[in-house]
Amino acid sequence: MGLLYPHLALGHGESESDIPMLTYRPHDSAPENLNQLLYYISEEQSRSEAYVHREVMCNECSHMRPIRGIRWHCINCVDFDLCADCKTKTAHFKHHIFAEIRIPVPFNSTLNERQPVAYTGNPDPMSPPLFPTVRKRLEALTNFDIYELDALYDQFTCTANQYLHEAQEWVINGQAFVQAFAPRQAKARPRPNIVYDRLFNFFSSGSDYINFEDFATALAYIRNKMHPSAKLRKIFQGFDFDDDGYIGRRDVMRLLKAFHVIQLQAMQDLVILQADSSTLRTYREHLTSTQPLGAPF
Question: What's this model's pTM, rounded to 2 decimal places?
């Protein structure tokens, strides 16, 4: 009794008969709990709808004008907003990103400044969801369940940027793969690096492209879906730069030097971004102060 319910552990001189019996009668508490739940949902809905986004309408329904509650704003479009109901069933571009806005912003704010799309692919012209036969085969190969495979396929279609007519499939090429490792605000593209090459080879298994089967299989290794011995063998191949079956001192030194170059470039990008942000903040402070406009210069 004490192990299962520590707070009911027997004290000195007590017996189990001294502990009050705990009974559970669901028919007594269910209506009360249900009423509390319904009241909570109604209260939350009323609290949310108290926020009114003036002059902003939902682009997919006609009854939400203006939008009440959560406003979902597409940062990749000039002017596209959704209400909370339409957000759950929208047919808008999958690779576009929505910002959640609870507190209304001024109508003349900078929200209409279109941001570049972060994904390298465009899932709309691609094939429909995975065929059942393909899903079943990959489920056995990768040990992902069908829901995980569907989620991975959505991620893949947003990244795949090239169509192979011979194979009749979309793939991720090296340019799109390396772009995922660079900050979107970086001033320069990532320089060629052997670490990127080995990572790409990990996903593509030596080919020039990454199809969805390659993508799902590599992530199965990373997410511990494969047998540990198979995962160790795959990792070993990544460290074995010259494919001689051994990891020597030269392989380790090449890897460390390549990581050092990546770290230096990442630090340079970070310093540049922080400097730009600091400069912009300084200009705004001067513009809102009583100092002359020429003071920053």
Answer: 0.66
